[in-house]
Amino acid sequence: MEKTEVARLVALTGLSKQVVATAIGTSVASLRRWERGDSIPDDKRAELISLAGGDRPAPTSPRKIPAAHLAQFPSHMLIEEPARRSQGGTLRDA
After folding, report:
1. Relative to the CA of 69, which of 11, 24, 76, 89 has its CA 20 to 30 Å away?
2. Whole-model pTM?
3. How many structural domains are present in the chain?
4. Over the Cα atoms of the chain, what is R_g?
């Protein structure tokens, strides 16, 4: 998987790198290394593709995250992420 592919998949999730890393069971540092082109383990690649909604073209609108994925995160992370995005101007209406 090339470095731009990892970054594209992370962006498709609509979540922060911290939340994505937690969801696939790795560190943010590892996720950043993979975005720069380091080799990503097959199991983590599969989890990242699944979290991003499968191996499909980018949707034209933000996708809905399945409840099963959201249930993996502590509630404070789900509350803090939209607040962080609204302050940074990156929060989009669904």
Report:
1. 89
2. 0.56
3. 1
4. 13
